[in-house]
Amino acid sequence: KNQVEQSPQSLIILEGKNCTLQCNYTVSPFSNLRWYKQDTGRGPVSLTIMTFSENTKSNGRYTATLDADTKQSSLHITASQLSDSASYICVVSDFGNEKLTFGTGTRLTIIP
Amino acid sequence: DARVTQTPRHKVTEMGQEVTMRCQPILGHNTVFWYRQTMMQGLELLAYFRNRAPLDDSGMPKDRFSAEMPDATLATLKIQPSEPRDSAVYFCASGRGTGGSEQYFGPGTRLTVT
User: Fold this and answer.
1) Has residue B41 got a pLDDT over 80?
2) Shortest Cα–Cα distance, B105 to chain A (Å)
3) pLDDT value at position B52?
4) Sheet of A19-25: strands edge to edge?
């Protein structure tokens, strides 16, 4: 069964600090891995999409990495801001269709 | 700024009542997804359509849930009869229908069944 596991479940950091969120997956065959940001009361919004051949992708202060051999990904947030407080969801797509397997997310809280 | 729209945003209903949720996908998107999100399970795919045809509804309880696309601008998700365990946030997402394409989520419908 395809699975996506994220850690930590929750994280609290001070504004301005960096943090890294982790994602491990067992989806096979692999097509792409996405990181979504979900603010409270809103739908998820895509941050990055990476295919098998990509091992890093940035979107502003967000940098995602992918190791397809070990089936691991990370999302690094630099110089955190209060607006980064949200849930971050790792999502993996298997090859050939649009069906996504979602992780349960990391709840990030930035405190001033 | 094109967005997926969903109505209603909130719905409170009594057990046994019919619930209909609506979604307007982004114009030009040919794939529509319905998801359910709960604290315990996270996001789960219920069904999805391409060019208005259902491709997969294996995530839906067939006895009470139904999903349709009457036209390219409207997708509906119905629950009849509703049960307390259906309480969740239901998201619609749309995309352009290729394996690596982006999915754009709507704001969701928060359903509470008492």
Assistant:
1) yes
2) 5
3) 92
4) A4-7, A19-25, A72-77, A62-67, A56-59
Gap between the Cα atoms of B20 and A43, Å rounded? 19
- Give the integer Cα–Cα distance in Å for B34 and B61: 13
B30 three-class SS: coil
Cis peptide before B54 (omega within 30 of 0): no
Q: Token match 């909130």: residue?
A: B10
| Amino acid residing at B24 | Q
Q: Which residue has the higher pLDDT, B50 or A22?
A: A22
Q: Is the pLDDT of residue A78 over 80?
A: yes
Chain A residues in contact with B98 (beta carbon < 8 A): 98
| Partner residue opposite B99 with nearest CB, options A41, A89, A97 | A97
Cβ-defined contact of A43 to B31 (cutoff 8 Å): no
What per-residue confidence (pLDDT) applies to B100? 63
Asked if residues B38 and A105 have their Cβ atoms less than 8 Å apart, the reply is no
